[in-house]
Amino acid sequence: MALPRLRGTDHIGFTVPDLEQAHEFFVDVIGCEHVYTLGPFQSDDDWMQTHLNVHPRTVMRELRFYRCGFGTNFEVFEYEPAEPPQRQPMNSDIGGHHLAFYVDDLDDAVAYLHGRGVRVLDEPTASSGASTGQRWVYFLSPWGMQFELVSFPQGKAYERSSETLLWDTRHPER
Predict the structure, then answer these.
(1) Residue 14: which residues within 8 A CB-CB, separation 6 or more?
(2) What's the CA gap between 33 and 74, in Å, rounded?
(3) How do residues 78-114 score in pLDDT, each as one tens digit?
(4) I want to staple 150 with a disulfide (CB 3.0 to 4.6 A). Which of 51, 121, 124, 136 is the partner?
(5) Three-state SS across the chain?
(6) How do beta strands 73-80 and 59-67 pair?
(7) Could you tell me the residue ranges of all domains in the chain?
(8) Residues 118-150: tens digit of each pLDDT
(9) In whole angstroms, what is the distance from residue 107 CA to residue 84 CA?
(10) How far is it, in rounded angstroms, from Cα 17 to Cα 71?
(11) What is the pLDDT of residues 27-62, one digit of tens each?
(12) How far is 55 from 49, CA to CA, in rounded Å?
């Protein structure tokens, strides 16, 4: 059984330490479009804990929604936490994550990031196995959040024999 009437991912939400810095990164470096802003929000009861699983006295200073090309939207928060913030998880930590952007020309995109002073983690890597045909590289936001660029202009090896294909930014209509 599946979640009734599931259509897909609407947005990915994450918290940043400085929303102005994040805005500049997403708009001026990545090329996302800012759509709208909400906040601040705080509660004198347990609403924050009950609805968001954070300390009840936490203040959500502001959140901004961004559209980034084809695919999901980003909901980016800045909080004033009531408790000391935790360190940002690495990929190997529980809750570790990264956001991946598809680009048509990986080498051009990597050169662009270098030109903007973005920290790129080593050189692009060619995938193997079912992902043969894909190249990828990680990069970091100014606050250390992990991102990835991926490119597979000729597709991936698994596509030749799989009945189900992953959603593909190259063909958003599928």
Answers:
(1) 74, 75, 76, 77, 97, 145
(2) 10
(3) 999 998 888 889 999 999 999 999 999 999 999 999 9
(4) 136
(5) CCCCCCCCCCEEEEECCCHHHHHHHHHHHHCCEEEEEECCECCCCCHHHHHHCCCCCCEEEEEEEEECCCCCEEEEEEEECCCCCCCCCCCCCCCCCCEEEECCCHHHHHHHHHHCCCEEEEEEEECCHHHCCCEEEEEECCCCCEEEEEECCCCCHHHHCCCCCCCCCCCCCC
(6) antiparallel
(7) 1-84, 87-174
(8) 999 999 999 999 999 999 999 999 999 999 999
(9) 40
(10) 25
(11) 999 999 999 999 999 999 999 999 999 999 999 999
(12) 5
Alpha carbon 69 to its chain's center: 13
Q: What is the pLDDT of residue 1?
A: 85
- Of 106, 113, 97, 103, give the one whose Cα is nearest residue 145: 97
User: What's the rounded Cα separation, in Å, for the pair 58 and 55?
Assistant: 5
Query: Do the Cβ atoms of 144 and 138 come closer than 8 Å?
Result: no
Fold for the domain defined by 87-174: 3.30.720
Amino acid letter, 119: R
Q: Residue 70 has what pLDDT?
A: 84
